[in-house]
């Protein structure tokens, strides 16, 4: 196996110039929960089960199923030994990833002298191909409190086939790894657990610990209150949304339609709404629960615009989750039918092909803006399928609202001129400098992962709790990954999955939003959070979602 | 004349919730230049002339031409009297506008007891229609250090016709105004000077003072080192660009094409380049000076992408000024010809109409992406003209680069997969919370404007200099607006204009950029400025353009 590795070059050499803010963040020391500041021992909890279908999970993870979650308690001690630890970043970037690595590194430096740390390059592919960089203090230092994943980069490959597991085994044997930390989302943590099971089944000494990463905020449970990156991304998007609100109020003539990153769940949209108080925020989970149509979403927006016009406001802010279309059942049907038709028929200009659509789908297709119709028919992925991800839903909604308002204008029900401005906030937020919360949280997650490996644990996800308290009172532990799992049937086989945490319509964040949105829609309760601060009291603000969920937990 | 005015409602009542950062900015007290902290008197400079065609300017401004610019010096005193002052915001928003108003207000409170201040609503139309709000401490307080123009809003109307001047006269007579402060860009300050001349010619007591506002940074001269808003907007855009750089380096697969607000001049693009070190930044003034074609701009970008591919980089950041197309002479020709053809001929599907294009224009049209061709032919403004402003130049360039790379791929000269991501940063930046510099600069500009009115001056623009020094050492004065003017011939008549300050290819900022861009293009010298900070040393950073221009002035 070719490696071309070693103490490889890294992209931020000491010659790279940092901005003032980057430098000040580099130099900022990070607080630790008190249990990590002196001696500690690891306490096992009760036997665990699974999130669903425990029998199937037990079959899939015969070596790991049922093992207890654990917590770190003061006093006692762990064995004095040096460790060889690998770390990998998996999937899309999230602010704070570098601090998880810093946390692992600093733990090894102070508590496991003589340890070695490897960073696998480019995600899980780096494990399979044994591409790595040996991490030393000089490299790690230059990424402390910095955004992005560029220290070792990331990738979206999965370790799935028997051959791929074999490759992973060879790598961890070759590097003589005591442990591997997988930093990723729901899929990556499922993969981490499969690796832990596989290594244990093959009598390899390598333990595997996961860390919860995703700006989407959809990897969380009781013991893992939030995934890192969500706090920062929402704050960056909210800065921009807040600025647009001031712009809208100042000019008095634009409706800004803001699409926000996050396909599967609408946590980002909900959090940004709680931070900024837009006139409208569409939450995908509610659209799905109410089986709304594209027409009903359009009408909902249009009705508020008309009411606002009467109240004298010809401007506003509307937030839309990136995955909106995926939440509307009729759109899913239409796309399914279109894929079939495109595969087997000719799309003739006269539109006779449309007769093959079911009547509901035909109606929907007819009300879509022409540009969207064309996009659906012309742009395909390599498998010939319609590319839903490419649809700019904010532009689609602007056009649909525009048509509806034209209609109402003719009926004398609307008198203003509607001007929609589309925006998409995505890449700008996922690589920002981590907020103070994400910096501290990630540093604790990293220490926690290293401590779990040091104490010989495997198949756990790093769990830092009590996040509403000052850092020093945060609690530290590991939750069994199997306890987060359920199964899904794919191609006739049961696959383990950690189900994505969707926005709960009965949860505290959505309920707070629902109680206020009527007021926001007609009055302008805009809040401009401003740029993320790293110094002063505003640096310590916790995002609403986490605060409300912690409050609800404390209250219940 | 109907007024419907008085102590009118304002949009940010005390019941409005501010974010933590907004609140902390509200409470932050603002430093003043030392000359404004004790007694001062106004010293006249030498007789002034004009920027060009002094004879014509003298004819256009018989009452004002030749008057001296002035400066404030310590000692002495101004008459004790109360004043009635109006203020108007004109044109697009720029961060800091509210602090100009706060500065005027605070000056009147402390130095001209019993004064009254009126804010004209919705820009110059507010003057003509006598729509105003009487500003009191409660209103003004709620906008201190806040972004946007929403205290009294703005507008783009001009006071041009004799009837409109008459309306303005009636308003200032009705309100018995001693002075009027016009906060705006080059056009608005020209308009301010015309008003000053008109009021003087009609023996009205109302004096008029201008203030330099525009995020575009194209209103500046020796005595007015910068326009407010430029600093903040560039810092907000640079935060986003810096994040995209980290994203690009982390994923290693995207070219981000970022279009930046600012049609006329490329100062914003240049400043953001100096702050972030992109791989490519296109400066419109250079494109125009070198008479570049769209093809040569495309080739320039494509060549660097190919060289980067050889160096192992399949990603990058490219900055484009919003007004790029306006700088390319051949595009201007094509659009002129298209307007003619559209007005007189039929655009037939077969394309026989294309024969009417000159051969160079025909060639250009043929290499344009299909979507841009359609846009040019289909979307017209109310006068039937092609809408250049609607062309998303970042998307156009992505498509053109893509085609060129396809071609080179077939020729074996390029082997990677090119993925372009378009971005437009505009509205997000022009309404952000003002940076510490813009907050302080605007507060001083406001005090300065009020002091000039207090000392009976008219036809001046508020001039705050020595901006590289601590605020206390800033110097304060007024520059005659006629000295900034030249004439343009329009419809057979001479019109006074303040020429926009374009990026000077021999100026220090461009020269610095030009000396570094070769290095940036192939190596990755990215800098991530991070979010604007209001506390700590990074809050005091001055933008590069201003710093370099001040340095060059000091050096020369």
From TrEMBL, chains A, B:
The active site is at residue 216. Allosterically activated by fructose 2,6-bisphosphate. The record marks 213 as: Important for catalytic activity. Residues 84-449 form the Phosphofructokinase domain. It holds the Pfam family PFK. Signal peptide: none annotated. Pathway: Carbohydrate degradation; glycolysis; D-glyceraldehyde 3-phosphate and glycerone phosphate from D-glucose: step 3/4. It comes from the Eukaryota. Substrate binds at residues 214-216, 253-254, 261-263, 322, 427-430. Tetramer of two alpha (regulatory) and two beta (catalytic) chains. Catalytic subunit of pyrophosphate--fructose 6-phosphate 1-phosphotransferase. Catalyzes the phosphorylation of D-fructose 6-phosphate, the first committing step of glycolysis. Uses inorganic phosphate (PPi) as phosphoryl donor instead of ATP like common ATP-dependent phosphofructokinases (ATP-PFKs), which renders the reaction reversible, and can thus function both in glycolysis and gluconeogenesis. This is Pyrophosphate--fructose 6-phosphate 1-phosphotransferase subunit beta. The lineage of its organism: Eukaryota, Viridiplantae, Streptophyta, Embryophyta, Tracheophyta. The gene is PFP-BETA.
């Amino acid at each position: 196996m070719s490696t071309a590795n070693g103490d490889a070059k890294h992209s931020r050499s000491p010659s790279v110039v940092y901005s003032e803010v980057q430098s000040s963040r580099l130099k900022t020391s990070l607080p630790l929960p008190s249990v990590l500041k002196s001696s500690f021992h690891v306490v096992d909890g009760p036997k665990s089960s699974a999130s669903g279908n425990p029998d199937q999970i037990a079959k899939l993870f015969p070596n790991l199923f049922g093992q207890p979650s654990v917590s770190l308690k003061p006093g006692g001690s762990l064995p004095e030994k040096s460790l060889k630890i690998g770390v990998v970043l998996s999937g899309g970037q999230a602010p704070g990833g570098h601090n998880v690595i810093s946390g692992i590194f600093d733990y090894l430096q102070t508590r496991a002298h003589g340890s070695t740390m490897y960073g696998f390059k480019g995600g899980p592919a780096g494990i399979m191909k044994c591409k790595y960089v040996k991490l030393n203090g000089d490299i790690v230092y230059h990424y402390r409190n910095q955004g992005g994943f560029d220290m070792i980069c990331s990738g979206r490959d999965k370790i799935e086939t028997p051959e791929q597991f074999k490759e992973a085994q060879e790598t961890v044997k070759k590097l003589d790894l005591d442990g591997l930390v997988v930093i990723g989302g729901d899929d990556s943590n499922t993969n981490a657990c499969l690796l832990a099971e596989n290594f244990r089944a093959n009598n390899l000494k390598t333990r595997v610990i996961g860390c919860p990463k995703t700006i989407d905020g959809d990897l969380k449970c009781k013991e893992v209150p939030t995934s890192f990156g969500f706090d920062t991304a929402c704050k960056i998007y909210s800065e921009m949304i807040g600025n647009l609100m001031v712009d809208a109020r100042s000019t008095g003539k634009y409706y800004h339609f803001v699409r926000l990153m996050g396909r599967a769940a609408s946590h980002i949209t909900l959090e940004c709404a709680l931070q900024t108080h837009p006139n409208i925020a569409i939450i995908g989970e509610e659209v799905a629960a109410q089986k709304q149509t594209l027409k009903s979403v359009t009408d909902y927006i249009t009705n508020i615009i008309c009411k606002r016009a009467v109240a004298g406001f010809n401007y506003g802010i509307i937030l839309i989750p990136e995955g909106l279309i995926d939440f509307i059942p009729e759109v899913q049907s239409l796309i399914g039918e279109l894929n079939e038709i495109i595969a087997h028929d000719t799309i003739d200009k006269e539109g006779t092909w449309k007769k093959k659509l079911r009547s509901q789908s035909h109606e929907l297709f007819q009300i879509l803006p022409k540009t969207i119709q064309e996009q659906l028919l012309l742009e395909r992925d390599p498998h010939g399928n319609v590319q839903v991800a490419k649809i700019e839903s904010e532009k689609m909604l602007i056009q649909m609202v525009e048509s509806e308002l034209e209609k109402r204008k003719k009926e004398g029900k609307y008198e203003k001129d509607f001007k929609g401005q589309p925006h998409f906030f995505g890449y700008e937020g996922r690589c920002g400098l981590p907020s103070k919360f994400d910096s501290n949280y990630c540093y604790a997650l990293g220490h926690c992962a290293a401590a779990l490996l040091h104490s010989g644990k495997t198949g756990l996800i790093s769990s830092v709790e009590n996040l509403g308290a000052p850092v020093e009172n945060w609690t530290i532990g590991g939750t069994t990954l199997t306890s987060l799992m359920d199964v899904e049937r794919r191609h006739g086989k049961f696959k383990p999955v950690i189900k994505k945490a969707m926005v709960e319509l009965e949860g505290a964040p959505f309920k707070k939003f629902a109680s206020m949105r009527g007021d926001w829609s007609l009055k302008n309760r805009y809040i401009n959070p401003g740029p993320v601060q790293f110094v002063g009291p505003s640096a310590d603000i916790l995002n609403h979602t986490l605060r409300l969920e912690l409050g609800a937990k404390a209250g219940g």
